[in-house]
Amino acid sequence: MTRNSPKKASTANPNPSRSSSSMKRKRTSSDSPHKAIDTSKPTAIFAPSSAGGRSSTLSVALPASIILNAQTEEQKTALAGTLARALAVFCVNEAVIYDDVHGSSVGLLAPANDEKQGGEHPYTGVRDPADFLIHLLVYLETPPHLRRALFRLSRNLRLAGALPSLDMPHHLRRGEEALFREGVALARARGQAEDGTTLVECGLDAPVQVNAAIVPGSRVTLLFDTSSASSSSGRSEAEPVHPDAPRAEYGLYWGYRVRRAAGLAEVIEACPFAGGYDGVVGTSERGAPVGTVRGRKHEHLLVLYGGLSGLEGVVAGDARLREVGVSRVEQLCDYWVDLVRGQGSRTIRTEEALWLGLMGLRGVFGGEGNGV
Predict the structure, then answer these.
(1) ∠ CA(278), CA(244), CA(43), 5° rounding?
(2) Which of 74, 164, 198, 229 is the most buried (most CB within 10 A)?
C-alpha cells in the first residue's frame, strides 16, 4: 500500500473581493509614532515641577580607594565617568568622596604641590585618588561651555573627552530657553570703572550683565526674567541666585555638588544641610534584602557605599568612629540593606553597587525625578 500524501494547503484568497494590496491599511501622517513627541529631553525632570520647590535631597558617599583598584589611567577615568553617569541619571544632589585607605604606603598622601608642575594640576590618580575622583566628577558636572574657563590644564583630565556626556538639565544648548543658566563671571576690561555690575558668560550669543559685583572666574547660577526675555539693548535680564534655587524654588534637578571627607565619620558630621541627614542607608551583602525594607520619606537621605573590604572594613579603620564608640556599621545606619540577595559573584564592585542601589532604593523611598 502506498501512503497517501497530505493535501497541499490552498493558497487561494478566501475572500476574492479583498486583494492583498487592499487589505494593507494605508499609513497616514497621523499614524507616525513620533508626531508631536519631543524625545530630546525627559520633560518631567527638565521642566519646573508643578508641585513647586523641593527641599529634600539625596546624597551618596563613595570610597576613594575604588580609584586605586583601577590599574590604568584609562580605567580610572572610565570608572569616574561611570559613577558620574549614575549620579546624573538618578538625580543625586550630593556626592561625598571619603578617604578609606588607612595605614597604606600607597594612595592617600598629601596633595601634590601644583607649583612644581608648572602651574598645571598634577596627575593624582595614584598619589591622591580622592582628589582625582573629585576632579573628574566636578568637571563632568560642569556645563561644557564653562569648562575651559573654570578648569586649567590637568593630567587628570587628559582622557575626559572620551567619557559620555551627562547631558543634565543645566547643560543647555546655545539658544535653548531656560529659566536658569549656569555661567562664569568675566573680568572687567582694562581701565573699566567699577559700577557694581558684572558680565557673565552663560552660553548665549553675548555675555549677560547682572547688577552684582562677582569675583571674576566664579561660577554663578542666573535666574532669567521670563517676562522680559530681552531688553531694548538686546541683552537678557537676569540676576544671580543661590545654586540650590532651581531645586528649592522650582523643583528642578540642577546637578550635584561634590565634597571630600577625611573618613566615614566626617561624611556624617560635616553634612551641609540644616539638621543633618535624617536617613542613612548602609549597603552590604549582610544586610536585609532590599525588597523587605520599609522606608519612609526623608528630608536628607544619605546612602553609604564601601570599598574592597565593604563598609565593615571602613568602620574598623576609622579612628574617629572608635572615639565616639561606633564599632559596627549598623550603629551608623537607619537601614542596613543587601542590594542583591543571592549574588552569583563573590563581590559586587562599588560602581555596580551604586547603580543597583539607586535603582533598587527607588521602590523603597519613592520619588521620581528626586533621586530615590
Answers:
(1) 100
(2) 198
